[in-house]
Amino acid sequence: MFQAPGAMLPYLIAFLLVSIFGEESIGREKLASTNFQYVLLNFIGLVPSCVIATLALRHSNQISKLSPIKESSEEELNGKSREALSFSVACRDSYNRRNLLGCGACWFLYDIALYGTSLNLPELLSSIFNSESSTKSLVSNIWHDMIVSSLAIPGVLVGLCSLNRIGIRKLQIYGFIVICVTSSLLAASSAYGVDDILLLVLSCLLIFSLNWGCSFSTYILPMEVFAPTIRTTFHGFSAGIGKFGGFIGGLIFSFLGEVNISLTFGICSITSLLGVWMTHSFISTTKCRTSCPRPASVGDSDAII
User: Between 20 and 30 A from 268 (CA), which of 71, 86, 138, 191?
Assistant: First the structure.
C-alpha cells in the first residue's frame, strides 16, 4: 500500500530541491550546493527508518509491560524449536516445493518488470513531452513523472477492493495478464512512433497495472499457501528471490534502455506472460486453505538451526 506513495516521494523531493536551489544549482560549477543537496537527500532518507525504529521500539516496550518476559527452561526451548521444520525437511513435501518455486519465480518476474519500467519510463515520458521542444525543463519533467507515478495509488486501491471478490491467486494471474498486454502495446507503440497521447495513456495504464494486483499478491501469496510452522522461512526465501529479480532487472534494463526502449517493454511483456504460467501451474492454496497441516514432529537433527 505504501509502496505507491513511496514511488512518488523522490520526484516530490526533487521538485522541492529544484524549487529551493534552482535548476542551475547542480554540477561541478556549483560543487558546494551539489554536496549540500546530496547530504540533505541522505538525511531525508534516514527519516523513514528512524520513524519505523522508534515505533517498533515503543511497540516492543508496550508488549513487555503487558506480558513480562519469563525465562524458559532448556526443555521448553527444545520443544519450541521442534515446532519449526528446517528448510530441507519442509522441502520434502512436493506441495511446499511447487509453491516455493511458484511464489519465488513470480516475485522474481514481477520485480524484473517493475524495475525495468521504473528505469525507462522517465526517459519515455521525457521524449513524449519534449518531442516538439528543443529545451527541456527539469521542473516540467519532474511534474510529468510525478503525475504518471500517482496512477499507482488508484491501482493499489482498486486491487484491494478486488481482492475479496477475485481472490489473491486469480488477482495475480489477471495482474500479470494486464501488465503483459499493456507492455506489449507500449513496446509496439514506441517502436512504430505512434501519437504521443497514446504513449502517455499506455504509460499511465502500465503504472496502474503494475500496482493493481501483483504489487501485493506476490507478498500475500507466500503467507497464504504455506503452513504457519514454515511460513516465515518460505516467505523470506520468496522475497529474496524476488529482490534478486529486481537486481537483474535494474542491471539489464539500464543497458537496454540506452539501446532500444521498445525492447525493454517487450521483455516486460514476456516476463509477465511467464508469471501467468508460473502462477497457474505451480501456486495452489487448496491444501493450506482446507487443513493447513502442521508438519509432524521431527528429531533433534531436523530441528531448525
Answer: 138
Q: By the 8 A CB rule, do 110 and 218 touch?
A: yes
Q: Is residue 213 helix, strand or coil?
A: coil
Phi and psi at residue 69, in whole multiples of 5°?
-75, 130
From residue 15, how far is each of 25, 26, 60, 144, 302 by CA, in Å? 13, 14, 37, 11, 55
129: left (phi over 0), alpha (psi -120 to 50) or beta: alpha
pLDDT tens string 235-285: 999 998 988 888 888 778 777 766 677 888 888 899 999 999 999 999 987
Q: Residue 283 contacts by C-beta under 8 Å, 6 or more apart in sequence?
A: 98, 99, 102, 103, 106, 169, 172, 221, 225
Rounded to whole angstroms, what are the CA distances from 276 to 66, 173, 266?
Answer: 46, 5, 16
Region for 193 from its dihedrals, namely left if φ exceeds 0, alpha if ψ lies in -120 to 50, beta otherwise:
left
- Of 42, 7, 44, the closest CA to residue 121 belongs to 7
pTM: 0.74
In angstroms, rounded to a whole number, what is the distance separating the alpha carbons of residues 209 and 220? 17
- 3-class secondary structure, 130: coil
Classify 144 as helix, strand or coil.
Answer: helix
Give the three cell numbers for residue 298.
521431527
Phi, psi (deg, nearest 5) at residue 151: -65, -15
175 and 213 in contact (C-beta within 8 Å)? Answer: yes
Among 206, 110, 208, CA closest to 152: 208
Q: Using alpha carbons, list the distances in angstroms from residue 69 to 17, 57, 78, 222.
A: 48, 16, 18, 30
